[in-house]
Design goal:
globular, 356 residues
């Protein structure tokens, strides 16, 4: 009879040490198995979506991660677009104020420098002078180039149409490309050289119209501004430790110091002072900070494409408010420049997608 009965499993010895604890906690294999099951269940719930402690349905993890990944590029594009809108008001403000170019440059730079210095000191919890010292001579060189560009911008607006000034300034990235090729040995694509050729033709057409109207000096100042800012860009690429925000604050401070002995600040009316305060705070500082925060979230080509809003909106505001219209040749040359910029930028955006 004993041989015919099935053997019952051996019972554990309750007298063995730790038996009670093992009974309460389970064996190691059981614990691992249950832990893996719980983890798999948690992962499944995260992927499928679940309900929180209040019974509110939560989105699946995959959907949430997709939305989180898409949020920064959208936010970056909006920030760059807002920056372009801020910058586009510069030409209109320069037309509305009755101050001299040196006085305009003084107040604009003073308000911009104070705003940037305050924001950077609060955000970084360090004095702006300490940030300037940390940048050293490379930052000073960048600031000098940016100060020259800022001064040329104001005088260009005073001596040529807003459309000519903004369109010629928009050629700056190509000037930076040539300087980067010459000084840093950076490669320039063949299509970019082609776009540069079209831009050059458009600039010649625009300047011929300005020469006929006696506004060639304003066009030349716009080109000097583009070259100055392009030089600053190349210096930043050469010295990667340079931070653009403190450099911009230093540049506006230098611009104000240069303009001070030549300006007439006490002759500024309250109305003009309010406009110039917006010129420095809303146009320059806000636009700069928005662009710096947005451009780091999107590709360079996309930020350049969105930034072209400034070139389009700037002349539009002046035309709507003051009925300032560029000549036919300026429109033709501007169309060539903007067309080349747009085509090259769209190809830049499409190239990574085609490669992938």
């Amino acid at each position: 009879m004993g041989l015919c009965r099935a053997r019952s499993p051996a019972r554990p010895d309750r007298r063995q040490p730790g038996y009670g604890h093992r009974l309460l906690r389970g064996s190691a294999g059981d614990r691992v198995g249950r832990g893996q099951s719980r983890r798999r269940g948690s992962a499944d719930r995260l992927l499928r979506g679940s309900r929180d402690s209040r019974g509110i349905a939560t989105a699946p993890l995959a959907d949430r991660s997709d939305r989180a990944a898409a949020a920064p590029p959208r936010r970056g594009a909006l920030l760059v677009a807002f920056a372009a809108v801020c910058w586009s008001s510069g030409g209109l403000i320069a037309r509305l104020v009755a101050t001299t170019p040196w006085t305009t440059s003084l107040w604009r730079s003073l308000f911009a420098s104070l705003t940037l210095a305050l924001v950077l000191s609060v955000v970084r919890r360090r004095g702006i002078v300490a940030q300037w010292r940390e940048g050293g001579r490379p930052m000073l060189a960048v600031a000098v180039c940016m100060a020259l560009a800022s001064t040329c911008f104001i005088f260009s607006l005073a001596r040529t149409s807003v459309a000519n000034s903004l369109i010629l300034i928009s050629t700056g990235p190509y000037v930076a490309g040539v300087l980067g090729w010459m000084l840093l040995g950076e490669r320039v694509a063949a299509r970019t050289w082609l776009a540069m050729g079209v831009v050059l033709v458009g600039a010649v057409v625009m300047m011929s119209d300005s020469y006929a109207r006696g506004a060639i000096v304003g066009d030349l100042l716009a080109i000097v501004m583009a070259a100055s800012f392009a030089t600053a860009t190349v210096l930043v690429r050469r010295h990667g430790e340079i931070q653009m925000a403190p450099a911009a604050a230093l540049a506006t401070a230098l611009t104000a110091l240069v303009a001070l002995p030549l300006a007439e600040p006490l002759a500024t009316s309250p109305r003009d002072l309010a406009l110039l305060a917006f010129f420095g705070v809303g146009n320059f500082s806000a636009g700069f900070l928005l662009f710096m925060n947005g451009a780091r979230l999107i590709p360079v080509a996309q930020s350049a494409l969105i930034g072209m809003l400034e070139t389009v909106l700037g002349p539009l505001w002046v035309w709507l408010v003051l009925n300032e219209r560029p000549g036919a040749a300026s429109l033709a040359g501007g169309a060539l420049i903007l067309g080349a910029l747009l085509a090259n930028t769209l190809v830049d955006l499409a190239t990574p997608r085609l490669a992938s």
